Amino acid sequence: LHSVAPKDCKLPDNLRLLITSRPQHWADISGNNMLEHPVFQQHALDTRLSVDEVRSFIVARMKEITPKKPGWENWPPPEKLQELSNEANGLFHYAATALHWIAGRIDKEGISCQNEVWDMVTEEGGLDRLYKVILTSFEDIGKPTRNEQRRGTRLACFRHVMGTILILWEPLSISQINALLVDIPKEKFDVGHFLQQMRGVLIPGKTTGSFEDATPQMHKSFRDYIMRVQDPAEFRILTGHAHFVTARSCMEVIVKAGSQSRDAVNYAVGNWYKHLREAQENEGATWEDGEIWVLLAQMGGEAAISIWTRADLIGLFLDVANVGWRLLKRVRAFPRCPPRRSCSLFLASSPLESVCFPPSPTASVLLTFSRLVASSSCVLFP
User: Do 328 and 374 touch, CB atoms closer than 8 A?
Assistant: First the structure.
């Protein structure tokens, strides 16, 4: 407070301080029409204290993660700690993310990583450079691989998992996210292990409880990075694709509801159609993926209907009808998959009485309208 007022000054009761981590964030705040701009004033804070605090954090944290074994004496040298402190420049998030990555390298590579880690986290480039280091540590696409299929699977699953975390409609814990992503075969990609590996960018710093119970709090800088990254472009996440794969995961949970986590089922029921809507409205959805059509067909089964009709049926009707109508118009764009047949199975195969008895008016309208669309698609779009 001494930066904005004398020490003994009595401040008014309605004074509010908005502290942003970066100067450019003030532009977002000052552009808010709800603020009374004449009474708001930007004031640059002295960052020397935060620089000192972050350096102290770096020194203390390095003592914790450095093994107490032969070969680690006097490591890291003080000048390396100072280099990292200079690169962080008072930004706690940078320091916490870099140190978590260093701890992971120590666990994985041991003494052999001692020189390499400092070169990588102190190279010029700021957070973008650090994020690139972390991502290429997961899959170094700059190097050739003998198994392109495995690399493709890992990158696709990276985009699936991180994309889902980015666009969730409500916060879920790590364990709940793991349960939601049931459509990712564990033998091909271990989601739980991956989330642990990415902990440094998902949950910076320490958690008070277990990692599985923690809720990811992805830093805005990392969110922005993976949604615009051009190099390496393989890690870039498109909003439409993220919603598409999350909708697919939700439908898989609903279809297999009897064996799935209650939290995952509740989230899937309330949000699968919202993700489907956003997938249609944004860039990146892969509607040629035949799996989505198979799931849509299975959603017409009696057991699945009894699950998804717990949702807000008016919102569900509007979103599904809108998406279905747009997709029917684009049916010729997907010559390799059977959307019309699968869509018809989903929309027209189940009797109305299977929804509930007696069927609710909304459910009746939904299925009746869907049947009409499905049955008329061959006439409207031959």
Answer: no
